[in-house]
Amino acid sequence: MSVELSSLEQKQLEKMRRLREQGVDPYPPRAERTHTSRQAIAAFEAAEKDGEPAVPVVATLAGRLRAIRPMGKITFAHIEDGDGKIQLFLRANDLGAEQLAFFNHQFDLGDFIQASGEMFRTRTGELTLKVTAFRLLAKAITPLPAAKDEVVDGQVVRHALLSDPETRYRQRYADLAVNSEVRDLFRKRAAILRSLREFLDGQGFLEVETPILQPIYGGAAAQPFVTHHNQLHQDLYLRISFELYLKRLLVGGLERVYEIGRDFRNEGVSFKHNPEFTQLEFYCAYFDYLKVMELTEQMICYVADHVLGQRTVVYQGREINFAPPWRRVELRQGILETAGIDIAQAPTRNDLANAMEAKGIHPKPGATRGKLIDQLLGDHLEPTLIQPTFLYNYPRDISPLAKSKLDDPQTVERFEGYVAGFELCNAFTELNDPVDQEARFLEMGRDYDARDEERHPMDEDYLRAMRYGMPPNGGFGMGVDRLTMLLTDSPNIREVLLFPHLRNREDE
After folding, report:
1. Is the peptide bond before 363 cis (omega within 30 degrees of 0)?
2. How many CB atoms lie within 10 A of CB 139?
3. Using an 8 Å Cβ cutoff, are 453 and 240 in contact?
4. How far is it, in rounded angstroms, from Cα 245 to Cα 239?
5. How far apart are alpha carbons 366 and 455 in whole angstroms?
6. Helix or strand (DSSP H, E) at 7
7. Per CATH, which fold does 7-161 belong to?
8. Secondary structure (3-state) at 330
9. Neighbouring C-alpha atoms within 13 Å toward the C-beta of 413
10. How many CB atoms lie within 10 A of CB 266?
11. DSSP single-letter state for residue 137
């Protein structure tokens, strides 16, 4: 092998070679399985309802060896498959002393095996397969990452496990192999995605797919990843949002659309940020942000009901109740209560910066008024929003795609949903005036540095679509990873991503 193996891996590799010399294929091309562990147990329990099974339950199982306990002329083992664990009972009287010795000496934790026999219940009541035949399906060269010893019935049993977060993230395959709770988490994530789709489909939404590679990025405040199309001699961007493409579909007469997929943002990594993440966006004709608030409450409760069976969860020691109605707080009032500044009394950037300095808060140099408001929100208000809360009515200059309020052109009909102290979702009454939208794009290009993530490039094709006529609509975006964090009590986004992005490590 090209990689350097440890002494233990070398030992396992040599064992594999000896198996080949004995005519045993350590990686046969086919497996035969008649039952999963759960199916075999269910079949036996059904057969014994009226007493002892009249007909033996014969099964061929397959799975990874998770525990081995040699005890003289018998051996107990456990294998694990996608349904769970089941005990194996191997006896010299059934297999022969040579075969039992072969199993004890040539099979190791982590190996995949196939075992055939009859199901029975031990004296302790555990459903077990009495093995009459077995074979190797795949030899593990690298042992499972760690192990602990546990005393069972007076015998020491070694179980594999893995707890180091750095290793778990870098070797998710090993993490999944030894930590059943991690497998359960990702099954729950799949259930969350399924429930989101079920809810939106039931509301008459159409699931669609829009381009991942885009000639112009937009729809969010983020730096894009840039790539190049060699044949077209054209720079392209990995999308940062689905928004502008989904709203084009409203122009075309698709009144309710949604997409669940990957977005890519060239930004920092934190407990709630990963450069590649899963986003849900939907757009609904004839909705405004108030109706989207109601739909959001219904959707999150639907997911909690179907995935958890309840609307109350404990997240990092705090009880969170998703039951509607969620608290609604105007952004101005929330900042006044937490930072002591009334943003309505500071109509310019300099006014707001002076008000912040008077409170001992250092404004970010060069930030617009909207970004200073965002600073106050992030530093003072956001950490206090533990129970589900809608913050609404945001500054126009950080919301270029949202419709302004009729009585206050500098404020837009936008809300963000917060739970457990971080943002979960973002929504607008969408701007559908092409003239106003073009003016917003021009303002962003003029008022923001080209490197500023808030700067939106001009999208002429999107404006062309708007000029055909876009119905009034409400739009919504939510990070699915963050929702999964909340519903699985995961403190870090890396826990809910199968393969999170990590810095290179020199020793790998």
Report:
1. no
2. 22
3. no
4. 10
5. 14
6. helix 7-21
7. OB fold (Dihydrolipoamide Acetyltransferase, E2P) (2.40.50)
8. strand
9. 22
10. 14
11. E
Angstrom distance (rounded) from CA 57 to CA 120: 8
Q: Residue with structure tokens 């408001």?
A: 373
Percent of the chain with pLDDT over 90: 81
- Residue 448, classed as helix, strand or coil, is coil
How far, in Å, CA of 26 to CA of 48, rounded?
A: 37
Structure tokens, 79: 């294998």
Place of tokens 């099974």: 53
Structure tokens given for 454: 């808030």
Q: How far apart are CA 256 and CA 245, in angstroms?
A: 13
Query: How far apart, in whole angstroms, are the C-alpha atoms of residue 288 and residue 57?
Result: 60
3-state secondary structure of 5: coil
Report helix, strand or coil for 203.
coil
pTM: 0.91
State whether residue 367 is helix, strand or coil: coil
Supply the CATH classification number for the domain 182-211+240-326+387-496: 3.30.930.10
Domain range list for the chain: 7-161, 182-211+240-326+387-496
pLDDT tens digits for range 376-413: 999 999 999 999 999 999 999 889 999 999 999 999 99
CB within 8 Å of 32: residues ≥ 6 apart = 60, 62, 114
The overall longest dimension of the chain from CA atoms, in Å, is 89
Burial of 396 (0-12, 13-18, 19+ CB in 10 A): buried
Backbone φ and ψ for 194, nearest 5 degrees, come out as -65, -40
Q: Which residues of the chain have a pLDDT value below 50?
A: 156, 158, 507-508
Give the span between the Cα atoms of 284 and 429, in whole angstroms.
Answer: 10
Quote the CA–CA distance of 109 and 128 in Å, as a whole number: 19
